[in-house]
Specification:
Alkaline Phosphatase, subunit A; Alpha-Beta Plaits; six-stranded mixed β-sheet; 396 residues; 2 domains
Length: 396
């Protein structure tokens, strides 16, 4: 283990890339879910030689019910540490998964709204409309791409918000950028965030779109407004100890814009990967914490295993490039925040174990099943020699 604070750790979250149903999956209706194995089977195999070399194909043998990943065979000499992590917090959403990685255990699930209509309590919508000066359309659980096609014209004519939820704990607000300016949409999200806090809602999400009838398109100006953090995270501890922390992707929103020195906010995996490579080429010390969103947003929720497999192949190429930029003492940590099996019924996340690969930790070996995503937080403290009261056990 290298404790030098001059080293870099690249913590890369493959959003929704689960590796098999968790022991409590039945409680979530997710028995039989396995994002990686089922995606590989549906797509005719995966092409991920870098992660295979690191030991991705060795992980299923560690699990209670592990399924081989077609195209990703076990290797006799993995070049990284490999294992799996079991989420202990209540829930299977983005916020819960990322917060647990950062050291927070949520014993109370975030609230889920009924599919409706109506999905939202009348008191909530009435207060929201009164505070923003606009009435609401939708008020149901819906696909974000579909609801703007269904209600977009009425929204253009009326100027009303399109509000909807999903199987996650979310209050989502869609608005056409030419009808309602972004600053007004974001202000409305601030209002909704305050109104949703007493209801213990995980996220309020701004969903701006453009275009015309039959061709409405969501833009890259999405913003997430998370529930207030209940306690400091490992990001806060590292920053306070003088370790440079950079987030890439949507993590600035997920962590309520705290615990980091720099944020590179991007809305696609390709942009996030490019940003990480540029940071690595510059040789930053500290933690680079990145989320690759496309697996979840474009392929998991939309139940597209072939697209999911293609995205995994592209990210594997990125990891090969990142590996070449590692300096002595640097680490790459690969994991996920939850599952989202694209072959599973419905369109919700799935309660799964998540993979763990640690390139640069010596010697390469199995680190077994980690009970709690917060072992990542403990390991980051160990690597950077930061004394902090965080949950978990280091796998380094």
């Amino acid at each position: 283990m290298n404790n030098m604070t001059s080293s870099a750790v690249y913590l890369i979250v493959l959003d929704s890339v689960g590796i098999g149903a968790a022991p409590d999956a039945a409680e979530y209706g997710d028995s039989g879910a396995n994002t990686l194995a089922n995606t590989a089977a549906a797509a005719g195999g995966l092409n991920t030689p870098v992660m295979q070399r690191w030991g991705l194909g060795n992980i299923p043998a560690l699990l209670p019910v592990g399924l081989d990943i077609k195209g990703v065979a076990p290797t006799t000499k993995p070049t990284a540490c490999y294992g799996a992590m079991q989420e202990l917090s209540c829930g299977k959403d983005t916020t819960t998964g990322h917060w647990e990685m950062a050291g927070i255990l949520l014993e109370q699930c975030f609230s889920i709204f009924p599919p409706g209509p109506p999905a939202f309590p009348a008191e909530l919508l009435n207060a929201f409309s009164a505070a923003t000066g606009r009435a609401c359309l939708g008020n149901c659980a819906a696909s974000g791409t579909k609801i703007i096609q269904q209600l977009g014209v009425e929204h253009l004519q009326s100027g009303k918000w399109i509000v909807y939820t999903s199987a996650d704990s979310v209050f989502q607000i869609a608005a056409h950028e030419e009808i309602i300016p972004l600053h007004e949409l974001y202000r409305a999200c601030d209002i909704a965030r305050e109104l949703c806090n007493p209801l213990h809602v995980g996220r309020v999400i701004a969903r701006p779109f453009t275009g015309g009838p039959a061709a409405f398109t969501r833009t890259g100006n999405r913003r997430d407004f998370s529930y207030p953090l209940p306690e400091p995270t490992v990001l806060d501890h590292l920053k306070n100890a003088g370790i440079n922390v950079t987030t890439v992707g949507k993590l600035d929103d997920i962590f309520n814009h705290r615990g980091f020195h720099q944020s590179i906010h991007v809305e696609t995996s390709a942009e996030a990967e490019q940003a990480v490579l540029e940071l690595a080429a510059g040789g930053p010390a500290g933690l680079v914490f990145a989320n690759l969103i496309d697996f979840d947003m474009l392929y998991g929720h939309r139940r597209n295993p072939h697209g999911y497999a293609t995205a995994l192949a592209e990210t594997d190429k990125f990891l090969g490039k990142l590996e070449q930029l590692l300096r002595p003492g640097d680490l790459i940590i690969i994991t996920a925040d939850h599952g989202n099996d694209p072959t599973f019924p419905g369109s919700d996340h799935t309660r799964e174990f998540v993979p763990l690969l640690v390139r640069g930790a010596e010697p390469p070996r199995s680190v077994g099943i980690r009970h709690g995503f917060y072992d990542i937080a403990k390991s980051l403290c160990a690597h950077f020699a930061v004394q902090a009261d965080v949950k978990g056990e280091s796998f380094l």
